[in-house]
Amino acid sequence: MRLLVSRIFRHEILVHRPVQFVVIRNSHKVPPVQVGWEKPESGWIKLNFDGSCKCKSGRSSIGGVFRDHNAEFLLGYSEFIGKSNSTIAEIIALRRGLELVLENGWGDNSVWLEGDSKSLVDIIGKRKQLVNRCGEVQKHVTHINSIISELNNQCILTHVFREGNRAADKFAQMGYHFKNPQVWRHVPPNELLRIVHEDAEGKTFLRRR
């Protein structure tokens, strides 16, 4: 009887003992990176663009900002585009920015295009095939490529993490509040003053990948 009680007691301890999990961590961690907005070189203008979409409602807006090699604000734009999706919003943001390049006579400048949508950069910059893409996406991409072909100098398209695209993101968020397209020349709106100043000063943010 004493042996039986002993076995039962040991069994209860085993059942109620907390389970210990062993976490195996990857020894090859990807180190965090410093991300910020980067000035273009002299003779270049830089367009940062962004599209925004509210997933539940589909309401979308776009925004973008042009700056020169001194980080001087040249132009900003913001616009509500109705119902859409995030991909199309990003594409329209780039398309509108390129249209403004031509409208403002900047076609003779070298133009640096930068956004935080990696998939869009791959589609436009790397000429990836538009497999299973809707006709609207193809239409916008065709128009974007036609505008780029009209530029007289170099044109590059790069991806940046969101921390380096804050000004464009802010313009895109502002777009939800406007009934008509908005454009600011030479002087940014008050909502952008701090971000534009911090970008010009070279402020960076630590991003864990």
TrEMBL record:
Organism (species): Lithospermum erythrorhizon
Pfam short name (any one): RVT_3
Lineage top rank: taxon: Eukaryota
PANTHER family assigned: OS05G0353850 PROTEIN (PTHR47723), REVERSE TRANSCRIPTASE-LIKE PROTEIN (PTHR47723:SF23)
Gene3D superfamilies: Ribonuclease H-like superfamily/Ribonuclease H (3.30.420.10)
Name under which the protein is recorded: RNase H type-1 domain-containing protein
Domain RNase H type-1: 48-174
UniProt cross-references to InterPro entries, sorted A to Z: RNase_H-like (IPR053151), RNase_H-like_dom_plant (IPR044730), RNaseH-like_sf (IPR012337), RNaseH_domain (IPR002156), RNaseH_sf (IPR036397)
GO MF: nucleic acid binding; RNA-DNA hybrid ribonuclease activity
